[in-house]
Amino acid sequence: MISSTHEATFHIVTSAACINYGGVHLTGQDPPSGDEAGRRKSRLTMFDMASSADTPRARALGVELRKARQATGMSTRELAELVDRSGSHVSRWENGKLTPSEADTATILAVLGVTGSERDQVLELARDALQPNWVAPGTDKQLAALTEYERTATLIINVEPLMIPGLLQTYDYARHIIGEFGASSRSEAEQRAQQRIGRQHVLSGKRPKRLLAIIGEAGLRYPACPHDVMAEQLDHLNHLGTQDNIEIQVLPIDRPSGPAMSGSWALLEFAQAKPVVQLEHYYSSTTITDVKAVSRYRVAVETLRKAALSPPDSANLIAGIS
């Protein structure tokens, strides 16, 4: 349970607030020297993992730490003071660029008052944070990381052979699809549909993300929802396709392509981080950051774009179906 106040009754020291890592001084203060520098370097080795982590679990861990901090009303600077680090250090933890060790994570959670099963789940993320790929039962476990990826991406490429991509779904379509994928109740389907619609804000605003959606024709013609729901969805799809930052291509049924026959996946590109591939399954999801594996998906995108209809022809096909 997360405490409702950030009044700490104790002060835990995990390492020096001023750290030089890889030749980069993190706090903007005069760097330490001599024996003190050596001691601080060894503390960093003990408490922090590689700054180049930026893995799916590291991103998810950062999201959970930020949520826990914000729940207390604490600023990054206030938390930094309690754990004797710099504000930039805490920010790096929260954006996944620098990954705290399991021991360091336990200290943070103690300061924030996180206990019980919630604490155990966050510590599990910290324990395996440097693994480049992540397979998790239940898509909810990776939703925080996916949302963070979408928020920070410059380009999102979504391949969906049998349904409409989540970022382009209407609420009613999402509710019906989530129900088909095993939601335990109508209320759960409605809640998850609301969460999915909430993620769509990345496509609007002052700096909307670029989205390329490659959709299988079968997903347009044979939906797992009522006809009226699909008709609204198709109209919504064509409306979104007129936006400058959204490009929609339909892969015809008579043009089967291997990269689309294996299921749904998304490739996310970033300005200052390596790309990520997200695979969706019936009741699990996989996040891939391995460079060689991701490069194959980049090639697959070009293969699919050549096989798919052009955006204008795709819009005409969608209009004809609706």
What oligomerization state is this entry in? single chain
Low-pLDDT residue intervals, each spanning 5 or more residues = 1-52
First and last CA, distance: 49 Å
Element pattern in H and E = EEHHHHHHEHEHHEHHEHEEEHH
The strand order across the widest sheet is: 3-9-8-7-4-5-6
Mean pLDDT: 80
What share of the residues lie within helices?
40-55%
Tell me the number of helical segments per DSSP (H or I, 4 or more residues long).
Answer: 14
How many DSSP E strands?
9
Radius of gyration: 22 Å
The major beta sheet can be summarized as: 7 strands, mixed
Give the overall silhouette. Answer: elongated
Strand content: 5-15%
Helix/strand/pairing category? alpha+beta
Walkthrough of the structure:
This protein is α+β, with helices and mostly antiparallel strands and 322 residues long. 48% of the residues lie in helices and 13% in strands. A seven-stranded mixed sheet has the order 3-9-8-7-4-5-6, sandwiched between helices. It has a two-stranded antiparallel ribbon with strand order 1-2. α2 packs across α7, α3 packs across α4 and α8 packs across α9. The chain is elongated and about 60 Å long.
Summarize the structure.
With 322 residues, this protein is of the alpha+beta class. It has helices at residues 34-47, 56-72, 76-82, 87-94, 102-112, 116-127, 140-152, 171-180, 186-198, 217-221, 227-240, 258-261, 291-307, 311-321, and strands at 20-21, 24-25, 134-137, 155-160, 210-216, 246-251, 265-269, 276-280, 284-288. It is 48% helix and 13% strand.
